[in-house]
Structures are given as structure tokens and as C-alpha cells.
Design a protein that fits this description.
The chain has 203 residues and is mainly beta. 3% of the residues lie in helices and 52% in strands. It has 1 helix and 16 strands. A hairpin with a 7-residue loop joins strand 14 and strand 15. It is globular and about 55 Å long. It starts with 18 loop residues before the first helix and ends with a strand.
């Protein structure tokens, strides 16, 4: 939003010598997506190797209409395979972004959804709603604001700069990291479960 990452990719940070940090920054939990049963979408074989890599497919994309939908097979293995499908819609006139996550599974799954905010974003979490603000880049003392309405059937927490285990960090470049807020929702998913998130820019 005006050059500021509101929902941010946390970056890479390191490749060698700090396995816990390398693991976090490349993990499913370290990204803005869904994690099932505490597992990564892809299976790591070391700091530079995936022994099984999730394959993603774009199901539908209409850039002029602001709609995108994709699916991946990262959880489509084992005794109880599951599928994660995500639809993202941008309503430009309303200044809203809607994210719909659908989980298809034959068994009950522990489900986590993480939203990683940029390091300049301040978040006040009240129940399932996060009130966001960040400094205006051109007007001293002014702020932009947004509201992130999170899925109500998950239990939400806000974490910033946690070290054991790592959670709530952003890496702008190699070898650098700084605290950033992560909003984490935890719950359950069975058969066909839908989680809807709405990001509304208010100023």
C-alpha cells in the first residue's frame, strides 16, 4: 500500500550456521498461508534441499477483475490426504482484499493460518479483528490504517520477535532480521472447511 508491505514475505535471512532460523524462514508457518497438522507443504532434506516439493496450479486468473485462484498438492499424501485451495479477490472501489482458504480433507486436521505483517505495521488484535496502522510516507505524523477481519472459527494471537521457537520476524536482506508482527490462527478443519479473511483499507 503506497510502497509499504502490509502482508509481507518474511525473506530468507540466512543459509548456513543457524539451522533453527534457516528452518523458520523457509517454513510454511513462516509464510502467509495455511499449515496442516504442523507440517510443511514441502518436505525438507536439509538447508538447500527439498525431498518432496509441493506442486501448485493456477486454476483461474483474471487480472482486470482482480481475481486469482490456485491449489497445491503439498498435503495430498499419506493416509488422509488434504487439498488447500486459495482464492484472492481485490475489490478496488471498496479498497478491500478478500482471501478465501478452502481445505478438503477426509479426516480432522489441525489447521493454522499465519499472516505476517511488514515491520512498520502496528497491530492491535481484538478477538478476530486486527486494527492496523503504519506511518504515512509523505505526511509527517500521519498514518495509514486498515482493518484485518480474520476467520472467526480460529483462535487468534499476535506475536512479535519471539525467539523460542522463532515467530514474528522479517528479513529485508541476507544476514539481517527485525521483529514484525505475525497473526496466527489455530483451529480444526474437516472435509470441506472454508476460512475467509478480509483486509479493508480505511485511510
Amino acid at each position: 500500500h503506497n510502497g509499504v508491505d502490509v502482508l509481507a514475505d518474511p525473506g530468507t535471512y540466512c543459509y548456513h550456521g543457524q539451522p533453527e532460523w534457516r528452518s523458520y524462514f523457509r517454513s510454511t508457518l513462516g509464510h502467509n498461508t495455511v499449515q496442516l497438522n504442523g507440517s510443511d507443504q514441502s518436505v525438507s532434506g536439509g538447508p538447500f534441499l527439498w525431498t518432496r516439493h509441493a506442486r501448485s496450479s493456477v486454476l483461474f486468473a483474471d487480472p482486470p477483475a482482480g481475481v486469482w485462484q490456485a491449489v497445491h498438492d503439498g498435503y495430498a499424501h499419506g493416509d488422509h490426504p488434504a487439498v488447500h485451495k486459495r482464492t484472492v479477490e481485490l475489490f478496488e472501489q471498496l479498497r478491500e482484499l478478500r482471501i478465501v482458504d478452502e481445505i478438503y480433507s477426509s479426516a480432522l486436521r489441525r489447521c493454522s493460518i499465519a499472516f505476517h505483517l511488514g515491520p512498520t505495521i502496528t497491530a492491535e488484535l481484538v478477538g478476530g479483528t486486527a486494527w492496523l496502522s503504519w506511518p504515512h510516507r509523505k505526511i509527517p505524523g500521519a498514518c495509514h490504517t486498515a482493518v484485518l477481519v480474520l476467520p472467526g472459527d480460529l483462535t487468534w494471537s499476535a506475536t512479535r520477535g519471539q525467539t523460542d521457537p522463532p515467530l514474528g520476524w522479517y528479513s529485508e536482506s541476507f544476514g539481517r532480521r527485525e521483529p514484525a508482527t505475525t497473526l496466527l490462527g489455530i483451529g480444526r478443519a474437516r472435509r470441506h472447511t472454508t476460512f475467509t479473511t478480509l483486509l479493508r483499507f480505511t485511510s
